[in-house]
Amino acid sequence: xxxxxxxxTGHPLFQLSSVFSKVIILFQPADTADGSIHTWKKQYWTGxxxxxxxxxxxxxxxxxxxxxxxxxxxxxxxxxxxxHLDRNxxxxxxxxxxxxxxxxxxxxxxxxxxxxxxxxxRTINPLYDLTAFIRLCFILRRIRPSIVHTHSSKAxxxxxxxxxxxxxxxxxxxxxxxxxxxxxxxxVRSLYISLEKLTALFTDRMITVSTNNIAYALSKNIxxxxxxxxxxSGINLHRYQRTISEQDKQRLYAELGIRSHEKxxxxxxxxxxxxxxxxxxxxxxxxxxVCPQASLRFILIGDGKQRRAIETMIKHxxxxxxxxxxxxxxxxxxxxxxxxxxxxxxxWEGLPRAAVExxxxxxxxxxxxxxxxxxxxxxxxxxxxxxxxDLEEMAEKIKLLIDHPALYAEYTRNAARSIGSEFDIxxxxxxQENLYHCLMKTKQ
Length: 444
Description:
The chain folds into two domains: 12-232 and 424-443, 3-Layer(aba) Sandwich (Rossmann fold), CATH 3.40.50.2000; 237-423, Rossmann fold. It contains 16 helices and 13 strands. It is an alpha/beta fold and 444 residues long. Helix 6 (186-200) links the parallel strand 5 and strand 6. It is globular. It has helices spanning 17-24, 73-84, 103-107, 126-143, 153-165, 186-200, 211-219, 237-241, 246-256, 277-290, 307-316, 332-337, 353-360, 391-403, 405-417, 425-443, and strands at 60-66, 90-96, 113-116, 147-151, 170-175, 205-208, 228-230, 263-268, 296-301, 323-327, 341-344, 365-368, 383-386. It has a seven-stranded parallel β-sheet, with helices on both faces. A six-stranded parallel β-sheet has the order 10-9-8-11-12-13, sandwiched between helices. Helix 4 packs across helix 5 (153-165) and helix 10 packs across helix 14.
């Protein structure tokens, strides 16, 4: 019987064991056909024999917890990691929220146990958050992994708290970015910072994707320097280094209704406040006024909750003929190959993969100077970094490259040479494996 499913520490914050043990019994997992834990159903505890989970306990079990599998760098890298961890040593388990773009892709991955937690959502909701926390505690108590590795702010906080309460030996968190920023209300920002400080107390290692992120976290007194290390957000370098055939190029031009002489300015990002896509639309309007002779087309790859508002802005400025919303695309490498300049209007970042993908493709990047972007965008060499919301400066840099073909050619060469093997996605996985092995040795 599950009379005490969670062993709590003596910390006063966690003196709720009797309550949790009663609530957790409402979330006993149902058996699946193969005895693994792929689907979970809410049911009352009946004393039924729990599912057979011995298959995920014979190697080093690593549970990766992420809030939602949206189409983003953190999510794509997490999926690549759990798919490519060396199965000779590791047994990965993925715990995530439901209803996101990459859910279907996750379920196609072989030899991977996936445990959906529907209550794990991005927005703050005390009822959902508490329910997700209890479910995570139950999952971790049942699996007893050696390592819990969390991603994203919500899953990072709730997941690490659950791992600590369940006395998981090793707790790791990757800061792909931070859940707090200078654009939030003070009380929300302070809450996130306080929770990050708390969870850092029992986190063995915190991975960041840029050195600037480490400095920023330490400036907020989140953890200690020895807890941090940088593992770059990797991409498939060869996929973006490939050239595109003339036939494929013409096919894309025809599909998008673009003439070959037009200059294509591209941005990739989820339509959410962080990416600040509205400035991309404003930039298109401003550039048409300062470069009336240039034939410019603007491509925005992505989707999200702000799509309708973005479409409204495009109509308001009468720029439907030059701005295209493509949604999420699987042929991003090909689209970058026909791109002239890549733009990123983000207000905060970790270190965006999209900028790295553009540079590897030989496309100069002009982006807001936030967080880790200046670690890849070499100002005045392979692109420019500008102040957030300074559309005049951004337009000036774009016009400079458009008006000077020789300078533009130099920037494209520099862009293609500026990204090294540290951004290789398989190297990213090996570096995480090395970290797991090192921490396992220290815990023995």
